[in-house]
Amino acid sequence: MSDSADGCAMLGAVETRSVSPVFVGRAGELTALTEALSRATAGEPQALLIGGEAGVGKTRLIEEFLDTACDRGAVVAVGGCVELGADGLPFAPFATALRSLRRKLPDELNAAADGHQGELARLLPELGDPGSHEPSDEDSTARLFELTVRLLERLAADRTIVLVLEDLHWADTSTRHLFTYLLRTLRRGRIVVVASYRADDIHRRHPLRPLLAELDRLRTIRRIELARFTRAEVHRQLTGILAAEPDPGLVEEVFERSDGNAFFVEELVVSHENGCAVGQLSDSLRDLLLVRVETLPEDAQRVTRIVAEGGSTVEYGLLAAVARLTEDELIEALRACVGANILLAVPDGDGYRFRHSLVREAVSDDLLPGERSRINRHYAEVLEAGPGLVRPHERTTRLATYWYHAHVPEKALPAVLRASVETRKRHAYAEQLSLLERAMELWDKVPTETRDSLRPIDYADAYPACGCDPETTSLRYLDLLAEAAVAARLSGERERAAKICRTALRILDGDESDPLRAAWFWTEMARLQSNLGRGDGWPEIARAQELVKGLPPSAVHATVLVGAAGWGMLRNPGPDALAAAERAVEYARFVKAEAIELNARITLGTIMVSAGDTEGGLAAMSEALERTIALGQFHEAARAHVNLSSSMESLGRSREAVETATTGIELARSRGLVDSAGWIRANLAESLLSLGEWERSKEEAEVLLRSAAGSTKPGGTALLQLAHLATFRGEPARAAEHLAEARTRYGSRDPIPQYTLPMAQAEIAAAAAEGRLADVRDHLAATAATGFPPGTHRYGWPLVLTAVTAEADSRGLPAADEGRADALALVRSCVRALATPAPIWQAYSLQVSEELARAENRETAARWAEVVAAYEPLERPHELARARHRLADALLVEGGRREEAAALLREAHATAVRLGARPLREDTELLAARARLSLAPEKPAPAPAEPGDDSFGLTPREQDVLRLVAAGRTNRQIAEELFISPKTASVHVSNILAKLGVAGRGEAAALAHRLHLLDAPL
Predict the structure, then answer these.
(1) pLDDT at 141
(2) Per-residue confidence (pLDDT) for residue 868, from 0 to 100
(3) Nearest 5°: CA angle at 113, between 110 and 114?
(4) DSSP label at 711?
């Protein structure tokens, strides 16, 4: 082995082509190695055995350890065993290691070997001519071993030596004996011996197996077994290899394909980076994995080929029928496969599987095309003749797989369709989509008579329930497209669903004989257009309504009405939407389409809540939820959780919303409803934010953003909650980033109020935090122009409150005077359009009214007390704390109630600290400082400030200057009015800015008005 190979690249003939620069996992194992190094450095020899399957990461662990050893000044020597037939080269790893030591410590090694060079030349020929010495015998072998151990002890007497012997499973007999002798007799010296071996190569008759058992009994030897990587560790490995965050889908696929084997992960990434599908194996890896298979007897090789095509596990009876070997021949072949660690008996003893899935793929890929087809055909024929050979729930899917790979389309298509029905019943929508796409692929390859014998496979929501008799009507290609479109949508593949719908509509274009099918696809397109942010979906709904106009009631007609009602529910929940929902329920009930009726009832209940019939609407949705679960309509059940949790939040019942959302997430996840889980989690994040559970809200939003739904509208809502949170915590730049990302998720082609209004509020809040009052007014004006549709009060009240608070905070600023009257008039106009159907919105209404009064300098403590009283029964800690702060301010201005004000400030401050609401915390601290009040609950409030005392240490003259600064005067104008020099005025202004802790004159003026620094002393 060359010098460069001493501490790295020790995986034998396997070439690692892509390695993560970041060491992943193995913290405990690396700690064990470094601790052994420390003990060896202290004079106690150490020995460790590292086992694990090929590619699991033994080499990488050793390399990391060697880097540490080198950093600590140790001398490293590495030797690897060589695979050459049944036996390796004699002493090959020791010879390589000693050669390395001789290069690094030439004088020291020569001194240690002095007088015994001839004997030691049997290990290291460079030391001399072993032929001139007495002939070998048993004693001479023992002497050689002893001399080798003493040589190492002498070298390690005053320096730390790390000796690594890799691939011990390939070691020749002499090497194994010397290794055993070394571990048994090494007693002195600062030396660490590390040996690695492939655990999966150590079959029952492997010569290393008894040695390992013997060494296990030695307490001085530590054995480390490396497990495969977890999913999280594979994620970190991929991040290191790619130098970027990997796509979650790639992580999942690589983890499943590699089973956590680090080397296989690398090879799969190389294939992926080279443009190959992750499922395809590179040639080098395939060759590596096939080596042991090719050493098996012919019958055993044949069995591996058959098992490779049978699936993850092949039952013994099925294997026996397909292999067509005698029982004795099959047992002997299986014994060889199991003994070579290629196949394993499954725990229940009824079948066999490959020890590693990639080995199975390598064997499968090595099959000739005709050979693969023949094996799969045999599997299919045997399984059709003997359905009891496999578990009942596996039979249909496996039969579909076998016939497909057998390339018999007329048999494959019916089997695939039956399998797609079963997967849908299990709510495995992604798998159903794959099967349906396979059916579409087979469609044109199947004879017409075979297709004519097929019947509609299932119902995709309302499709194709259009008066056709499934018993006599043949399956159409459009039926496949309908099933596939729904499966794609339910599995989160909206782009694929839209493409399928467009294909169907092209087929139907100009065909006036099938309006119901066309209407159904237009309704699907409407939903997808909205979900993808490419439009509001109304043109598609209108087209569907036109197609069903005048037709008898049908499930498709009811579906179209549900679509129209749903569109109105989100965009204009008025009388028209309510009427459409009621008609949809009526039509669905008439045609006995209960699933559609339940969908319509959920929509109707949501619109009823928006229209003010809160209890009736919630009851309608709850009843529909119970019925959907009873019927197994889990997608509609998840939708009920979405709408129920949202409606509860709109009524201020956030705690109930959290409970409903939590239950809904569990249901959606258990059924694989990715999109529904995303919508529910977005609602959960919003309700948690309302309740003041800000960290939990943040966690839920981040979980959603990492999920498959994070790149769509649910992700936009999650980002919106993060933007609100950033504003509450005084991080306007971060809020702006979240808003920008949310805007991309929502898109610009479908302005739904439940997105546009919260976005506008967040933009107003960000502008107010940065003092951009003009932008606050512009955003409010733009929002007022589009209006507040019925049911949008939940978004309108926070928006208006944010805007009017910005006006009140800027009262007295000269730059804010112009346009203030119009802005406040606009606020009043918006208020008149907003309903107060729940206590939370009544509290908001009171607060808006009092902020209007504050903006006009007519606020009263009594009215602020009403606001506080309105919030106190509600779980809205942030809103309550803000109201308490305002009440305390008003009390201090009116005078005489300092203890009450101090108590309010302490409560508000404690809430702000708990929530991490920095702006609110700073406001309470500034007000307390100005009023000379303590925020510590155990300290009584100090005596009121004497008249003439200045706030923040401002002198009377500085207060005069501050009044003029707040009026917008320049230094020269201040000097002229106060009869001082401009320079003196400049000095006063600088002192004021420093005492107030602000950066400019505008901030000083704003703070002065906000804290009443220019009013009478508190």
Answers:
(1) 63
(2) 96
(3) 80
(4) G
